[in-house]
Amino acid sequence: MKLIKIMAFVFLFVNNTSIGQALNVGLKYEPFVLYTKFGSVEDNDIYFTSFYLHGGIKLNSRIQFELNYGFVFSEGYRFNGFEACLFGKYFFREKSEYIIGGYIFHKNGGDNGHYYRTEDKFLSLGTVGIGIFISELFFIQATYQIPFGNNEFGYRINPNTLDPNKNTYDKNKLVGLFKLGFGLSFDL
Q1: CA torsion angle for 82, 86, 88, 89 (degrees, to 10)?
Q2: Which of 126, 80, 123 is nearest to 105 (CA)?
Q3: Cα-flanking dihedrals φ and ψ of residue 51, to 5°?
Q4: In whole angstroms, what is the distance from residue 74 CA to residue 111 CA?
């Protein structure tokens, strides 16, 4: 709520353009590399199922705030769920190269596999990255996302075939995500 009040204050007292010229909407597709750890073993995989709707407001020719809502899917037992994102962009030249930073709320869906379990929980991630508009509508961006707080979102069962009561578990921890985004952005 505090963040919304700050954004409203900045918009009302810093914005010098009309609202109609400052809004944009679009679509974004982001293949990603998921960096996780099961116990002490790193497990990194590439996935191609991450889609978002986004809307933004330009405060001036250099600064833009953007809201994204979408979903991320990996294998059934992994990192799956909906995301709501708040990003700030700083453009070096108007609608060209930019840096991006922000905060993501990820709602991981609980799922069960043969030897895997994921927890139905919220995860918070910070984002940093760079991007460029290739044309008036099309952009490409690369971001790295780092979890804040508790990054455990599931576990793997290590079965003991002799005595099932002696099974062990390795926690599944999120280390980060690298995303390469391709998107369209339409000024309203």
Answers
A1: 30
A2: 123
A3: -135, 145
A4: 12
20 exposed, middle or buried (CB, 10 Å; 0-12, 13-18, 19+)?
exposed
Q: Which pair of structure tokens corresponds to residue 181?
A: 């985004």
Contacts of 173 (CB under 8 A, 6+ apart): 36, 37, 151, 152, 153
* Nearest residue to 143 via CA among 187, 113, 96, 182: 182
Sequence letter at residue 61: S
What are the tens digits of pLDDT across the range 144-161? 999 998 888 887 777 766
The pair of three-digit structure tokens given for residue 179, joined into one six-digit string: 């995303």
d(CA 65, CA 57): 6
CB 58 within 8 A of CB 16: no
pTM for the whole structure: 0.80
**Domains of the chain from N-terminus onward:** 27-187 (2.40.160.20)
- List pLDDT tens digits, range 106-145: 998 877 666 677 778 899 999 999 999 999 999 999 999 9
- The string over 144-153, giving b where at least 16 C-beta atoms fall within 10 Å of a residue's C-beta and e elsewhere, is ebbbeeebeb
